[in-house]
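Sequence and fold:
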Amino acid sequence: MNNKHALVIFPHPDDESFGASGIISKFRSEGVPVTYLCGTLGEMGRNMGNPVFANRETLSTFRKRELEEAARQLDINVELLGYRDKTLEFEPIESLAADLKKRIQSHRASVVITHYPGYAVHPDHDALAAAVIKAVEQIDPGERPEVWMHAISNGHEEKLGEPDLIFDIAPYWDKKEAAIRAHLSQADGMMQLIENHDQRNEQLQRLKRESFYRWTLSTT
């Protein structure tokens, strides 16, 4: 892939590791710089570690450190957008889009990875992804990056069809596992699944495949 710069835009620490760390690792192996624009610090998350080691006041600090470690494992840069967890759906989409457009253009991104609005389960996922689409639509057609969207809701392929891009990320599994492990407060259940090594487990197999839909934008 001849991408100048890949931007990953998700709302929470760990979204990048669970959803896109395989393709991130592929990009990095090809020398493509990757920056993660992380919308919030996930401070309203329900998981506090197992056994519990955080509380509502300290969770954001832990999650920021976890994100820094995941970024180190993946060899990527991180920019914190500074929004509050579970409030993105209430932010004016125009202001979100304006912020994102400026960042996308400053990085001269050639591909942007985000969620698929409406098929991303969490309101923060849907809201930030919708703002990404709006931001890219406002960029001159000749300068727009590609937009790759990650759909995660059950049954999304029945409505959307097969994804446009499907990656077997087995060659990068060690990187993905290390990134997931970095998110200690959030990954306990997933790590039990991984350590079980049940190759028949559908959820584990999904982790080893990353797929995206291309967003079709008007050329006018």
